[in-house]
């Protein structure tokens, strides 16, 4: 059975000295397949929290995917 959380949509951004820049919008599985970079952040998988501007790091995103 496929994990439905893997299909939740997040925005991936890169943080730099000039601010945060969007890389793309993808599902959580695709986001976690990106190369590990400390500068990447991800919007919270909960749409309400994402709309509030809450971002998570790669470890936190993987934790959301692991929780069923």
TrEMBL record:
Highest taxon above the source species: Bacteria
Name this polypeptide is given: Uncharacterized protein
Source organism of this protein record: Rhizobium mongolense
